[in-house]
Design brief:
The structure holds 2 protein chains of 2 kinds. By secondary structure, chain A is mainly beta. Chain A has no helices and 12 strands. Chain A is globular and about 45 Å long. The chains are: A mainly beta, B mainly beta. Chains A and B meet through strand 5, strand 6 and strand 11 of A and strand 4, strand 5 and strand 9 of B.
Amino acid sequence: AQSVTQLGSHVSVSEGALVLLRCNYSSSVPPYLFWYVQYPNQGLQLLLKYTSAATLVKGINGFEAEFKKSETSFHLTKPSAHMSDAAEYFCAVRPTGTASKLTFGTGTRLQVTL
Amino acid sequence: NAGVTQTPKFQVLKTGQSMTLQCAQDMNHNSMYWYRQDPGMGLRLIYYSASEGTTDKGEVPNGYNVSRLNKREFSLRLESAAPSQTSVYFCASIRQGLAGELFFGEGSRLTVL
């Protein structure tokens, strides 16, 4: 069975500051890992995904995430926050070898202040 | 392309009423999913359909039924709605390949009084 833990349900940063959203996973087999973003009253859209190629993955809107097997982590970062980054972010995991059973974390709401 | 389309976007029901949420995708995806989103709980899988003609239970299937009508459409039915089913429901489909990501609809907000 797989699971995802997102540390911090709410994160607040100043505009221009570093964004760090934490995600730790548990999976019995090597996983695929995803970060999704949800803007208010919208569905989720993919930011980036890890599929066992490069451990540092670059996504849309300047976000990136690094897969660290030893730490079972897939933290999301952005060097400089923008007001438009305010949203809810979800980490998700799926074991390789199956197209089903995508498991989501509980989400982190990012607030960006002036 | 429309992507994943859900109807209705909003619905208010009384306890015990029934309703069906409709979902259609135009991306020729094989697998489709229904999730519910509740504050502080993330997204939880209700049912999924790996391919046309098959459906399987997810994490929270009780109180729901699904129908994979054809490759494009996957509906979710509440036979006797309960206040605990007040939630935002999302339909999603998955791009081909095991590393494919989910494409989501915009959600259906359901309130059960």
